[in-house]
Here is the input.
Amino acid sequence: ADPRPRGPGSVSVSPDGRFAAMETASAILITDLQRGTTTVVVTGAFNSPSFSADSRRLYLNDRHGRVVVKTLFSDTPPTPAADTAPGPSNVVALRDGRLLLFEVAKDGTTYVGRIVTPGAAGAAPSFQVENVSQVPLAALAPDGAWFAYRTGSGTSAGIRARRVDDLASWRPVTDVLNGVAYVTGWSTKGI
Here is the structure.
C-alpha cells in the first residue's frame, strides 16, 4: 500500500496512544507506535479512520459514505456501524461509545452533524453545518469534551468548536488563513 497519508483528517491516534491509523489512496494502515511496525488493516476505498474509546475498533467511511466498523487485528471484514444518509460522510468516535457523523442533509446541498449510538434507532441530536461545500473533517479534543470542524468554504472558511454535550452552542476557533481552514488535530491541552 502507498505509505503516504491522503490529506487532512487522514491520520488518527488511538485514545490509549498506542496506535496511529492512516488513510492512504488504497488502504487503511495501523502503526504500533511502541513497536514501530505498520500493518494493513483493510484495503479499498475507506476513509476518515477514527478509533473507538477502547482502541480496539476502527470506524471508517466506505466508498458509498456508509459508516463501518473494523475490529483491529481480526480477519473479519468491516461491518455497518450506523445508518447514514446516501452520499459523502465523515465519522468521529466519541469517548462514550457514540459516533459523531457529518452527512449530507435532506436538501442534498448542505451538511448536518449528529451524534448517534451504534445500533440504536430513532432521532439523534443534530446541528446544521454552515455553508459547507464538502463533507466537514472533524477532530475530537484529547479530553473528549469538544470537537472542532471546518465550516464555510473559500474565503468564508473557518474552524468552529462545539461541546459534545451541548450541540446548540458553538464558538469560532480561528478565522480564515488565505481561504484555507482544516482541522488536523488538537494540542494536548485542548482549546
In short: Residues 175-179 have pLDDT under 50 and may be disordered. The CA atoms of residues 99 and 116 lie 5 Å apart. The first strand starts at residue 11 and ends at 13. The two ends are 35 Å apart (CA to CA).
